[in-house]
Amino acid sequence: KNTPKSILITGGAGFIGSHVVRRFVNSYPHYHIYNLDALTYAGNLENLKDVQEARNYSFVKGDIVDTDFINAFFSQTKFDGVIHLAAESHVDRSISDPLSFVRTNVLGTVNLLNASLEAAKKNPNFRFYHISTDEVYGSLGKTGLFTETTPYSPNSPYSASKASSDHFVRAYGETYGLPFVISNCSNNYGPNHFPEKLIPLFINNIINNRPLPVYGDGNYTRDWLYVKDHAEAIDLIFHKGKNGETYNIGGFNEWKNIDLTKLLCRLMDKKLNRMKGTSEKLITFVKDRPGHDLRYAIDASKINRELGWKPSVTFEEGLERTIDWYLDNQEWLDHVTSGDYTLYYQKQYQP
Ligand code: NAD
Predict the structure, then answer these.
(1) What is the DSSP string of 32-86?
(2) Which intervals hold domain NAD(P)-binding (predicted)?
(3) pLDDT score for 298
């Protein structure tokens, strides 16, 4: 029997969060979905235009670091679950401003955990679900895969803050008995991705004939997952994952940055009817990022085995859909690349 449920999704105006909110609002009409987001530079309600009028959806603007606000918010609504995505998420920004990452990712998470303890006391079915990254595991050599038992070894202020929040979630489970699940996912790509991250940055730069800044020698290797496949995994873990467990989520899709960039260039030349090789000429190698992890790769066999999840699209299909989305949504791109983004872009790429 379907009982009404109140679900809090934090960071729902961001890239991944907006796909999770849409999926939950549309798939579970008998739930009420609360989207709590501070609307930082990365949060954008335009991402959710299509669900903003839905009867089972509410947006609340607020900062997870504000303890009084969070406690008051939790005392108004009896939540059945929290899916926590709100975070500072960009590694390059964490290098220039680590404290804001500690603030949101660590303090904000602990605030939510404290409020969740109270919620769990009143509701035995309550669950806290923390969305995290594979970057907490550090870097791999040329071979091997991250599994759920790989020791944490974060190398950037971003991954250190996410590792810390993962530890707090786990500790609240052990110390206070808070029912929780955690998932650690590889790099996402897809519609609504803020164009400071590699794939949307490069799509945007190719459209505008701007250089494509590839770090170091371009041999950094990442595993890529289409964002809607991540949202599906989150849905499955939230509903069927075991309390106290961690699940790794990945695309079985490893790419060196330089090869990915060339693939993107080829696809964009075709889409824009440009001569073969036009976009590749925009590739420029730039000074390496400090503390740059060589390779991330995920063993996602546990979620496949236990929950039956696997990615639904190939990388080429996902990239094509992503490129089409950016070409069809130039207005979105223009909005998010005005203001603060322009300043950041100039500082980062035109020093
Ligand atoms: P994002 O930067 O696009 O979105 C983050 C959202 O959180 C924004 O809407 C922002 O306004 C909100 N937010 C930031 N600080 C806040 C605060 N103090 N209070 C309330 N809201 C706040 O990030 P994303 O790429 O969608 O990532 C979402 C989550 O998934 C993060 O926790 C991230 O660590 C994790 N993750 C991301 C990836 C990826 O490839 N993008 C991969 C694995 C895990």
Answers:
(1) EEEEEE---TT--GGGGTTTTT-TTEEEEE--TT-HHHHHHHHHHS--SEEEE--
(2) 8-322
(3) 95
